[in-house]
Design brief:
Layout (H helix, E strand, L loop, with lengths): L3 H17 L6 E7 L5 E12 L4 E7 L4 H7 L2 E8 L4 E11 L3 H10 L2 H4 L30 E15 L4 E8 L2 E7 L2
Antiparallel strand pairs: 1-2, 1-4, 2-3, 3-6, 4-5, 5-6, 6-7, 7-8
């Protein structure tokens, strides 16, 4: 018989593998509340998972729309789906834009060079390209200044295993997770 501890163990292992090996859970979808109150959704790559802190981290451009959205409404939702195992993991938590320079530098150094190059563009994400720049405005030397590291302290989890029609939900109280199986 599957227990809550078994499922939590599978969740922690899945998040660890997503951030160290690359799995279906590596690409997750982040939901925020837009500045005008509308729902916003976009893909992010999960970069780090800290089980002890119950925290996920991802990188983004400091000028992207999600930064002011998170500052105004730090409650976020994430959804990942691993097609290979037919498992969906929904998560909710409190997001924080990391300000600690040492922590940001450590995260920056953990990125591959091609990922760091994504921050070379001096253009603001989501703004129209001008005919003459077509995204060519770049400054690799100042890339780190456009790099933001976001941590999400997990508060709620929903594990849906479509291969055997099982669903489990958990809520964090303090440092403890409480929950169990629910109707799929």
């Amino acid at each position: 018989m599957t227990t809550s501890e078994d499922i939590l163990g599978r969740i922690w292992q899945s998040l660890h593998e997503a951030t160290t090996q690359g799995t279906g859970f590596t690409l997750s979808f982040l939901g925020t509340i837009g500045l005008e109150g509308q729902p916003r959704m976009r893909a992010v790559i999960l970069r780090q998972f800290h089980q002890a802190q119950q925290q996920l981290c991802f990188a983004t451009n400091i000028h992207s729309a999600k930064i002011p959205e998170i500052r105004r409404h730090p409650q976020v939702a994430l959804t990942s789906y691993d097609a290979g195992s037919s498992i969906q993991l929904r998560m909710e938590g409190h997001a924080d834009i990391v300000k600690d320079r040492v922590c940001r530098q450590r995260a920056w150094r953990s990125l591959a060079a091609h990922s760091q190059e994504l921050y070379a563009s001096t253009n603001i994400p989501g703004t129209p390209l001008q005919d003459d720049d077509a995204g060519r405005n770049s400054d690799l030397a100042s890339s780190f200044a456009r790099f933001a590291w976001v941590s999400v302290k997990l508060e709620w989890l929903d594990w849906l295993d479509l291969s055997d029609n099982q669903r489990w939900q958990f809520k964090r109280r303090g440092d403890q997770w409480h929950g169990g199986d629910v109707v799929p």
